[in-house]
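Re: your question from the hallway

Yes, I did run it. Sequences:
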Amino acid sequence: MNAAQPKPDRPAPGDLFLSEIREQPDALLRLLEHELEFQTVSRALAERAPTAVRLVGHGTSDAAATFGTYAFGLLPGWTALRDTISLTVYYGATFDLSSSVVIALSQSGRTPDVVDYVQRTRRRGALTVALTNEPDSELAAAAEATIPLSAGPERSVAASKTYLNQLAALALLAGGAAGRGREFADALRAVAELLSVALGPLEQAVSAPALAFAYVGRMYVIGRGLEFATAREVALKLTETCRVAAEPLTATDLAHGPVAALDSLFPVWTIASHDESLPAVIEGVARVRDAGATIVSSGTAAGEIEGAAYVLPVPDPPYPILSPLLSVVPGQLFAAALARAKGLDPDHPERLTKVTLAR
Amino acid sequence: MNAAQPKPDRPAPGDLFLSEIREQPDALLRLLEHELEFQTVSRALAERAPTAVRLVGHGTSDAAATFGTYAFGLLPGWTALRDTISLTVYYGATFDLSSSVVIALSQSGRTPDVVDYVQRTRRRGALTVALTNEPDSELAAAAEATIPLSAGPERSVAASKTYLNQLAALALLAGGAAGRGREFADALRAVAELLSVALGPLEQAVSAPALAFAYVGRMYVIGRGLEFATAREVALKLTETCRVAAEPLTATDLAHGPVAALDSLFPVWTIASHDESLPAVIEGVARVRDAGATIVSSGTAAGEIEGAAYVLPVPDPPYPILSPLLSVVPGQLFAAALARAKGLDPDHPERLTKVTLAR
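Structure:
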């Protein structure tokens, strides 16, 4: 290479993560181009009339699975669970799977125990569906049906747009199974629009708490109901990109022990959205306030949290069930800003790789 | 009171918690006096032939519920889940419950959303069972069948013997549903015996790590499979009694993000027991070792964890599925010792009460 030439562009630490967070409205619209595939799979799910929808995934995919338990519970009214992979993969439990649907989530499609789980449950009669960003992966080959997440290449190790598209895909599948697929596709288009307007101001708003929290070592992230998925994903972002020991808790579980550990140097990130679980969150935050902990509030109802030092509201989506697609974004942006404030690289956290082959 | 008289005995901080940990073999034997009641309820469960066993509880009771998903999965081969209470209680989801069993866990029998959940699911056709230490409680009144935990009064806010009896009760119910109730009652008697021998030496063994960890602010507690219940309960004990931000993780989830946060001042407590999930735990611990974190190993296979700074093995029970009843004890005793080393009172942690009325 000629030394007189400019160096090829090399992203600065955190550029990938931040650009992928910003890209989420476009990624969401790409997913919606597959509306017909969602219709086909939703129809197959409804024909199975499952007694159990078994969701499996690790890390970010497992946070998305939490959302799935609500989406299937509230839309078609099906029992959905984050299944315990080890029962099937390690202990050889022999459940009756004839009326089960399996939905396996993996960005890379290569998570070993998830692939193994799908192979075993498919052999034993479950209807298996893969949601992956890599439609040529092992996971896609193992499952009976595959829906591409269509998020585009995700190069940052810390996931963002694949999470948002996992939530959207689960909402479309659950909505479709309830005969409301079209309605939810339209609602998700509206979410993409809301998100593209909200991103810029939120990116500005997170810089103040990111500076204030540069020396924080531990946090809780609390949500309830639908927003517990968001709490799990935000806690994971803070842990992997900022090396904060951030634990997700329901607002109720906080009162059953962990509230004892709080003090003024142990901040709490709250996800508060407009739905039936909001009073429980408000009650939980009152306990946090009594402990003197610094409070950040985010979500569609962020403004209803009293005593928050930082308030990061997001707009209300057409249906409250879609709030988690918006309320995760302040947490993603905050993680990006805090990592930068701490001199860490969220694109390449220590000891992590984009494809995790841990069993 | 005459000033010349000795003061009435008042327990020193932590005395209640420690005496209740020590009392666990006796508490377990008391539960086994109810073998006939377990038989009756197990028979009713088997008649229902449930497509879903829905376990609900908060805090320690929720950790026990994790064990329940394995006990029902491995013994009668039923799908069991820690149900999301908010779907039923806040969002009014209308699942078909005609082939569901509900098992509600609450030491006090007064946890409001658990009581509410049982009332609603019973009205809608589920077979509801309460496992509580207070057979005259609201929860017992709400459920169709109640099994007393028979742990005796638990006066320490931090639970110990009620947890052990919850595990035993779930093992008896699941064993009974598989036609193996008698066998498991005998095995639990053997566990009580093993425990009474192990308690003294373990109490000695935890004092070294308790002194070394007096300034630790955050920890991970890892387990996999059956022992994930233990990881959850040990993490909760450390959080509520020692004000350590201790998060439970499966050995696999550790690799999907949290391993990035580790360093030499962020210790990891490992539960390793002799069963099919052990290789995954050993692989997970190798990642912890690479990060330079201090490792404590406990469980029946504690000795197989390389590079552990502290090794706290427990004896093997007659069936590996009962390992969690033994492997939780080093964690309980460590929490008691660490609380004392930090000058905290595990009998009365700040901001906690024995009966939690949070919704």
